[in-house]
Amino acid sequence: MSSSGYIRYHGLLLPPIAHTMDSLEFAQNFAVEDSDVFAVTYPKSGTIWMQEILPLVLNGGDLTPIHTIPNWDRVPWLEESRLALVVDQLVSPRALVSHFPYNLMPPSLSTSKAKVIYVMRNPKDLVVSSYYFHQMAEFLEDPGTFDEFMDKFLEGRVLFGKWTDHMKSWMNTELGDRIMYLTFEEMLQDLPAALRRISNFLGRNHSEEVIQKIAEHCSFKAMKSNTMSNFSLVPKVYMDNDKSHFFRKGIAGDWENHFSSEQLARFKSVIRKELEGESFSLPWSM
Ligand code: A3P
């Protein structure tokens, strides 16, 4: 246990409501199948969006799973305790999500033929989204002021550690053509185009009709009103919608409404320094 009430796992802070030593061990020993698909994200980068998209892409647009199974059981988190309870009900090809850095993924991932979609989001928007999420998610630490929360984020004293470490781990894997990189902004800008990329990567090559159907059901508006995805099934003691909504704004560029010029300079300088010498470049101006 860390001093904050989160558990500490390989240096990462995790909320004990969903993560236990048993669930983390279960994740380590998870037997990845060749047909498995993982959507990996740093928190607040589009995880729940992928929990809607993946079943639809994998099953050709059949709406049954997204309308009958809550997102956390439909496409469970690899590292959370629900996985052990639902794993036997997952239908092949299985879709999972994870916030783990690459080095904490189960060893069976690298020996399998499973595919990974790494979804990333402009960190300036991500820190804003995370700040509001910490206000409404009662199982997370109070974020304090936005300025305090930004410092915590830059120092990695937040869930799943430093964003830059997460990026570095996933940009430098040996997965070759088994990993696809996708941005939140790309999905926002042209969801059908992003869905075509996902569909082709997963070998589905769906018709335009199927792509348009999936896009319609994965819009911000559609997901916000889907009770199986909008967390309205979660009691208020865990998620308080009076404080902020999980489906808050779903836009790019909200950081401009939150960052002062001093905060922007600090943020950019830390991120640039952390990524110095890396061979990849960020898809956003920083
Ligand atoms: P905001 O807080 O900026 O609105 P995660 O699922 O990784 O926790 O990410 C949550 C963020 O994704 C929230 O961002 C949420 O609104 C946004 N999001 C989820 N589904 C979306 C969709 N269909 N379209 C746009 N944004 C979406």
From TrEMBL:
GO terms for biological process: catecholamine metabolic process; xenobiotic metabolic process. Signal peptide: none annotated. It comes from the Eukaryota. Belongs to the sulfotransferase 1 family. Residues 34-276 form the Sulfotransferase domain. This is Sulfotransferase. It is found in: Cytoplasm. GO terms for molecular function: sulfotransferase activity. The keyword Lyase does not apply. Pfam families: Sulfotransfer_1. It comes from Amphiprion ocellaris.
